[in-house]
Description:
The protein has a 24-stranded antiparallel beta barrel. The protein has helices at 11-23, 33-43, 53-58, 64-77, 94-100, 311-315, 639-644, and strands spanning 46-47, 104-105, 124-136, 158-167, 171-179, 196-204, 209-219, 249-251, 261-269, 273-289, 299-303, 320-333, 336-351, 365-379, 382-391, 396-405, 410-419, 440-452, 455-466, 477-491, 494-509, 518-536, 539-550, 554-566, 569-579, 586-589, 599-602, 605-617, 621-632, 636-638, 651-663. It contains seven helices and 31 strands. The longest helix is centred in the N-terminal third of the chain and has 14 residues, at 64-77. It is mainly beta.
Amino acid sequence: MQGFACQEVPQHVEEWQEQQAGSAPEEMRENDEQWTLLQRYLRRPLNLNTATAEELQELGILLPEQISQLLEHRKVLGPLIAIYELQAIKGFDIPTIRRLLPYVSAGDAFVEQIPFRNYWSEGKHSLQLRYARTWDGPGRSLFPATEKPPAYIGGPDKLTLRYRYSMGRHMGWGLVLEKDAGESWLRKSAVPLPDHAGFHWVVRRPGLLKTLVLGDYTINIGQGLIQWHGMAPGKGSSVLYFKREGESLRPYAGVGEFYFYRGVASTLAFRKSEITTWLSARTLDGRLKPADEDTAETSGSILSAGYHRNLSELEARGNIKQFTAGAIWKRRWRAGHVAFNAQGLHFSVPLQRGDDGYRLFRFQGDRLLEASIDHAFNWRNVHFFGEAARGSTGHWAVTQGWLAALSSAVDAGMVWRTGTPGFVGMYGAPFGATGLAGNEKGCYGALQWRVHPALIAAGYVDVFGFQWLRYRVSAPSKGTDALISLQWNPSRHAMVQGTYRYTEKMQDVESEGAMEKAVIRQRAHQVQLRCEFPLSPVLTWRARAQCQLLESSGTWIAMQQWNWRSGKWKGGWTHAWYDGGAGLGMYLSGLGFPGDGTVARFSGSGWYFRCQAQRNFGDRWSAWCSWQYSRNRAPVQTLAEWRKGTLIAGRSTVQLQVQYEWGRHE
């Protein structure tokens, strides 16, 4: 087993997570499915000579044009003899190959044929247990005292139990149980149960029934206007990763409690087309408003955090039932595809939009129907893609983009999007400034130039606007986001990257003595430097420095990380210093459990330290542990705690993970 728990999340994934946290923290999704998939390919690499376009898309590393070029190279010249033959394929540069190397192989294209009857017994079993607990500094407590509301009724321990069985991509099932810190155990039977439980069973077969999932699953449609449960890249130094890519239907085994469906879903494959359908019934957390003189019936509002720690959160637990039905019909050609998508949602109580002005166009009611058309196709050296959607509310949204290889060294892309203020997309995650399709229009353009095999220059400009009010912006507004990046790879495992980013947006500001808030334009300049160098075969050094300057204040953070391996041991040390003004935050990814998508928010001034270690015991057991401590005037905290307004200084956290694997095939 190749170091399951200590493998680092790819840099471009960390950038996406940090960018999304900085621009739209409410849209962060707790989902480690992508990381789990990459870990599977770590142990059994994907063979580039037999991989399908869908499997290559699943990696989340390759652009559509790169996938197209690889498949065409394979068709014309035959199988790859060695992995480094990728350098001869148009669009494959050293950084891309470097990201691919751990997860792919080349050479022998032999595919082992396993009878269906053996799918049930010859797969790989995995049992994983996670534990975390946080202690605060002297005189302060993370959890309010039981006599002071809102008291957390459960203990401070966070527990996760996950079991999985997988027969490659062909079949699998899994169970996940999780109790968040502050939550109590459910005692519906003699055996206490954690707050969240999930299950899935999936089978994939060539032929008519391509995929069947029972239990929990995710649905991804087009470019994410109406529906996208999976990982959704944001803006970062990987400037061309803006197209939504992924399977329409995937089983779900994450611990996030909101962005998934529960029921049955399937994909039927025909010669040149396929149909994906799904039915879901699940309960959501929500605040209920009893009927009164103004409202003839009970209404509610949905909560997506998934916490049930105090009486208020428990009262909201499972108050709203959601029933979902949808379908995708996709017609494929050699050059691309066109798909027609439709989804209907029904809620047990009508949802209310609230009384704030910026909520005027938000959805309210108990039924929502949305439909869209999406497409993607290649024409010469250009890849076009897009989606157009309309809802039963009468509002619509459109996104259209292209990616092109202008020369052997220059790639470019553009995304144009627009959406009326009333377009819903309740589970959507399109590319843009906010991650929501409604009330946004803009144009994003990016360019990447391989100046030298080891040197890449890239940049983007995004100009956007909002037709209606937004939270903390009491007037229609507009903004600009631009970035320039330079990356140098002096060797296969070494990297130096520098970026400059400029953002301009509008926000409400209270002026002393004024009766109303003023909407002003805020400008920010951000400079970032990342580097990574192998100092020896057993030791690697990574560093990062980031500075952001606003008109009235500034923030900075500096971090260094030492990763080592020796025999069956792996580990690392991380040390960070930071300083920022009141209300300002900086974000770092990869500080939680391996691959869980945790993004930590740093505010105030102080320092942070973390050490972690992992050891493999034979081919079946692995153990991972982490201890982290922060010392500051104001807290370092997770995004979920920041939303709740929990401000705690001086915090120590212990995280433990044990995993046991057995079986024959991965």
